[in-house]
Every structure is written in structure tokens, then in C-alpha cells.
Amino acid sequence: MDQTQTFGVRATEGAAVIDITGELNASSDPALSDAYAQASELSGLILLNFAGLEYMNSSGIGLLVTLLIRANRQKKRLAICGLSDHYRHIFQITKLDDAMKIYETEADALGSDR
Amino acid sequence: MSAKSVIEPLDIAPNDPLLAYLVSSPGAVDIQQLELDSPAVRSMKAAGIKLAVPLVSQGELIGMLNLGQRMSEQEYSSDDRALLNNLAAQATPALRVAQLVRQQQAEAKERQRIEQELQVARLIQHTLLPKNLPQVEGWHVAAHYQPARAVGGDFYDFIEMEDGRLGLVVGDVTDKGVPAALVMATTRSVLRAAAESMARPGEVLRQANNKLCPDIPENMFVTCLFALLDPVEGRLVYANAGHDAPYQRSEAGVVELRARGMPLGLMPDMEYEELETQLAPGDAILFYSDGLVEAHNSNREMFSFPRLRELLARHVMSTPDELVDFLLDNLARFTGREWDQEDDITLVTLQRVHNVARHTAFATSMLEEVEPPPSDETQAAYGEETPGTDASGKASSTDAPMSAVRPADDGAIWDRITKFEIASRPGNERVAIERVREALRSVDLPARTCERLETAVGEATMNAMEHGNKYQSDVTVVICVELSPRAIRIGVTDQGEPIPLETEEPDLELKLAGMQSPRGWGMFLIKNMVDDMQVVDDAVGHTLQLTVHRERSH
């Protein structure tokens, strides 16, 4: 649907933040890969902020798993914040919450994880 | 060292003493010197074989190397023998692996054959089970059929007689798979023919038995209950050919409707006891198959007749569809999530309603419920949606009643709140989600339940567009949302072939270790978002039916 999707990348103190906005689905692959590449230049801790997420489907979960594999290989840490209750539930049942640290908000993540 | 290249096939009987001798022999054996009363040794001697080197793997003889005369005509030296024994030690594991591979290939082929056979059995069964439930004024009829993986021989049928009476059949063929499905098909026709020519259940079974006896395979038979309902008088006349006795639930309690009779197809000229019972408004009758009462839980306890009877007594008077749901809920609770269903389960319920006026309220037409698209933006995504603009020839699937999608639970109490089609184009699952969200807005549901249903519908629609309809944009996915007092049910139908619903359970650890694809979360998500997921393959297509219980979501 959205062929020119991009995710913003911000450098903060201690982490690079990727703002996941709109949809995370099969077509988000290039946007997510680009954002990750930029972010991994900036910091060893990459925080995916899902506050702007509208919709994520099973393909989106697949992309996150791929990203996790890449991050593990490159010794980068991934963390998550800003999930709605619904997607938090999905992170629980898929056990993604065991593989990545989940924070309520970006402030929580940056405050405690340094 | 070289041997003459004479290759002649050698047959060795499994009881030939040579085999035992070779297993225990430490290395190459001089065949010409061997004195054994063995036909194999005799033919090897005759073929000029000098040396046999046994290939033994884990105490089992898996082959041998046979050598003829050396080209130099000299005897084999001890060096030759050492070399041969060495060769055998290396060849044995390689040969063993090759044999295992071949064996596995044969087994895979066999599994595929069995799967195809099951597919045929499923198709026969789906084709012959009723597509619609009978509409009888003053009565609710509901049915549920849930095939086991191996497809048992359950069947049920409704026969609407010219005089307004309704014939009900519930039966079970011994055996499984295609043989059972074929006998089921025959029994169904024989019963229909008999029922049309006479009106006495005992007589119908007697004649059906006589027709089946000469044709039915020797080790098979059919248990079957035949009942005839006079809907005006509320009288049910029934006869039973060895099937589980139905239960009647009335204000006074639960009684079993027993009638004597042998299963069909065992012996000709049997007599079938014919009895009758009277149903007062509010009374219900449950017909069922042994798959229900014989279901086991993980502790190997059986669901059992007493439990069924107790549940019936406990269930508050309501419509039969709810009774079916109530029993299925209890069965699911009993068996637990990991249940491997051993046998088909069939439930048919019949209830005389208190208030006739009620069920007409639900007779809504689908066409008036096609809503305008929520916005101009999504207009393009709808494809051939309104019947008026349909050029794809798929209009029939839109008009088909839900009962054709699922013969099982259809009945007056499911109130359809929307039904629509979307074209199979990437991204259109968002349209489906949007439509379902709109439809559920009028229903009092917790936000959490709505979100889960939306995720499930999105995944089911993606699967339907991709795997079922192969993203052909002129083939649509039909989505139907229905409501009962207890549950929400959403059917997502594509035009794909019946496929067995078995996907590997995704495991994040395996995925992170690179041992499973990172993808493959779709079915897992659906299963975890809803209370029940069923697959129905029939004339309308391949349907994934998602159910969420309303009372549990609060």
C-alpha cells in the first residue's frame, strides 16, 4: 500500500530510536532495514518506538524476528516501547517479550537502560 | 585383485541358514569350502562365487559382497581378505544410509497416499451432509458435524416428507476413510428411498437393512437412528438400528429414548422396534454419535453418557443452537487444548419452541446489509462487491445462505450483521478489518475483543487472498459476521482447494537460531486471537470460521 514508507531515526543519549509509524507489514521491509542500518551506526542500543503504530500483522512480526537475528549477530541490543495493550499481548504470546526488553514509554526505556 | 564381473541376482530365503552364518562371521567367507545345508550356498557355488563378505550393521545383515575367481586364477591372499574386510567396514554404513533414505522415501509416499485418500473421504462426506437445515415452523433444528482427522463414518440427514413431516437420520459407519464414506453414501440413499416410499421408521430401517445386507463389506455395519417428526402434533416416532439412544429433555428431566434393533448390514430380515414420544413446547431432543461420549481427555477419562446426561439436565432451556454450543464448550473444556480428536462428532438437536413469533425476526436478507464503503479512499479496494456490478460470476457465493458455508451450527439464532466480498489484492486485508470494525461498532464488546478479532480477520483474509485465491483480483474473499447471544462468528471464505490445517507451530527460539523461517506467524496469531477456529470445505469454498465467546470477553 504505502510504497514510500520510511521510519524516522533519532539519536538520543544512550540509544538510537526508530519511530515505527503507520503499518508494519510485508512491504515495510526496506523501510525497517534502512532505519536499522542508520540506527546501528549511531548506537549499540536500538529502541523501536511503537507509539505511532497503527497496524502490524504476522508479516510485521516476521520482520521483527529477522531484525532480531541481525541484531544478535551484530551484537546490538534491541528494545521496544510504546506498545498498545493489544500489541503487547501479541508480543507476549509470540515470546518476543522474552527476546527483547519491553518498556512502557520511551522515557522509561532511556531512563533505566543505559 | 579383481573379480570376474558376473552379476547375477541371488535370491536368499529369509530362513536360509547362510544368513545366520554370515551375521556371526567375522569377515570374508570361503563359499566353496562352506558346508551348510543351504540352497543359497548351493546356488552361489554353482555361480562360481569364491568369497562372500558380509555387510553387518548393528547386528543385522544388510548386504554382502560376492566375489568370483581372481583374474590371475590364484587364491585370495590374506592381504586381499584384509582389504575386503576393510572395504566392507566402510561400505556398510553407506549402504545402510542409502537403505534408510529409500525406506523414508517409500514411507513419505505412503503418507501422501493416505492423505489423498482422506481428502477424498472428506469430500464425499461434505458433499452428502445437508447443506441447509430444515425450516419447520414452531421448531428449531441445529446440527454440528466435526470430522476427526482420519474421517470417521458419521452422517446425518433431514428428509422433508410431502405430508409436512420431517425425517431425521443420525448414523455411524464402522471403519474410517474412503470405505466408510462410500458405505455412508449408500446408506444415505437407501434410507432416503425407503423413507419416501413408507412412513413408519421401523419399516424404513427394516427395508434399508435388507437392501444393505447383500452389498455391504463383511466386516462393516452401520448404526443408525431414524425418527419422524409430526411438527403439528409434536409427536416423534423413532426406531433405532443399534445407534446411541437419543435423549429427550423436558421439564420433568432427561430421559433416554431406547428402541431395540440390530445395526444395519449385519443380518437380513431384522425387526426394528418402533416407539413414540411427545414433545411439549420447550422440550428438546439430542441425537449424537459416539464420538462425543467416547472422547477422552489427557487423563484417559471418557466424556461418558452420565456426563452428557448431567449437562443436558443442567443446561437452561434455550434454543438448540445454544445447546449445541453449550455441549461443545463443555467438551472442549473437558478435552483441553491439545486434544487429538479420535472420532467424528455429530450432534443434532430438535426443539419445540415456546414462542413461534421469535425466529422470523432473524430472517434478514443479506442484500440490504451491503453497506456503502466507509470512505472514497477505500472504494477502489472493494472489487466486485455489489451484486449489481458483479461481472465475475461469483454472485452466487454472495447470495448463498450462511448455512451453505457451515451446515453445522446454522439456525435461526445466528443473526447475520454483515456479509461482504473483497477482491484478492495485496493490502485489502485492511479493508476487511475496517468493514468488520464498522460492523462490530453496533455490538457491545470490550475493545480488547474487537482488536483481537480484527487481527484474526486480517490474518485470515491475507491467507485467503494469498493461498486460497492466489491473489487473482477477480476472485473474491467472502466475509460474513454473525452474532448469537453468546458468541460472534466470522467466516472468511476463499475459492481454494480443501487443505489440511497443519502448520508448524512457530517457535521463537528456533527462529532466532536459524532453524525455522522468521515468518509463519499467521495461523498462530489467528488461533491465539479467538476462542475457536474451524475449517469448512464445501461447495461454497474453503472457509476459516472464527468464533469468540461474548461472555468470556468481559
How would you describe what is shown here?
- The complex is a heterodimer of chains A (114) and B (554).
- Chain A has 114 residues and is an alpha/beta fold.
- Chain A has 5 helices and 5 strands; from the N terminus they run ββαβαβααβα.
- Chain A has one domain: 2-Layer Sandwich (Transcription Regulator spoIIAA).
- Helix content of chain A is 44%, strand content 31%.
- The longest helix of chain A has 16 residues, at 58-73.
- The termini of chain A are far apart.
- With 554 residues, chain B is of the alpha+beta class.
- Chain B has 3 domains: 17-103, Beta-Lactamase (2-Layer Sandwich), CATH 3.30.450; 129-356, 4-Layer Sandwich (Phosphatase 2c, domain 1); 364-553, Heat Shock Protein 90.
- Chain B has helices spanning 17-24, 39-46, 78-128, 177-197, 201-212, 290-293, 305-314, 320-335, 376-379, 395-399, 402-405, 429-440, 447-468, 508-512, 522-529, and strands spanning 29-30, 51-57, 60-67, 139-146, 153-160, 166-173, 222-230, 235-241, 247-250, 253-256, 274-278, 284-288, 345-352, 415-423, 476-483, 487-494, 532-538, 541-549.
- In chain B, the strands form 4 sheets. Chain B has a 5-stranded antiparallel β-sheet. Chain B has a 5-stranded antiparallel β-sheet with strand order 5-6-7-8-11, with helices on one face. In chain B, strands 14-15-16-18-17 form a 5-stranded antiparallel β-sheet.
- Chain B starts with 16 loop residues before the first helix and ends in a 5-residue tail after the last strand.
- The chains are: A alpha/beta (114), B alpha+beta (554).
- At the A-B interface, helix 2, helix 3 and helix 4 of A face helix 12, helix 13, helix 14 and helix 15 of B.
